Amino acid sequence: MAGNVAQRLAGLGITLPTPAAPVANYVPFTLGLDGRLVVVSGQVPMRDGKVAFAGKVTAESIDMGKQAAELCLINVLAQLQAAVGDLDRVKRVIRLGGFIAAGPDFTQHALVMNGASDLAVAVFGDAGRHARSTIGVPSLPMDAAVEVEGMFEIAP
């Protein structure tokens, strides 16, 4: 990784991890439109091979949920880098999808997902502004608190 995105990540104190291997029957990313579109499969908040934020997000743990969403996006970016080689090739973040494990009375899903969205803008600037869906779910794989997926436009 080189260039502007690497400098922004370093300035934020972020080092991208080795991308995690899929935990089921799927691929971590797919390329489409002659390599100009990359869809990254949902990533959970893994750190050092373990889920760093587990369980349900509650009204009392929104900040924890935001940190989990940010870590998920870091893992999305690691997969994206594996797909395209250089994150400076990202023209824009098209869409992020977020899944928040929470109880039926929790309604602050958007605040949690801002952890990922805010990081996308911090890393890519205006090109990081994106469409988004945020969905509350009763559980996620490996008891993760959050899962984030992404779609990116890539320069040739």
Automatic annotation (TrEMBL):
Gene3D superfamilies assigned to the protein according to its UniProt record, in alphabetical order: RutC-like (3.30.1330.40)
Limits of the Endoribonuclease L-PSP/chorismate mutase-like domain: 8-146
Protein name (database record): Endoribonuclease L-PSP/chorismate mutase-like domain-containing protein
InterPro entries xrefs: Endoribo_LPSP/chorism_mut-like, RutC-like_sf
One Pfam family per UniProt: YjgF_endoribonc
Coiled-coil ranges from the UniProt annotation: none
Source lineage: Bacteria, Pseudomonadati, Pseudomonadota, Alphaproteobacteria, Acetobacterales
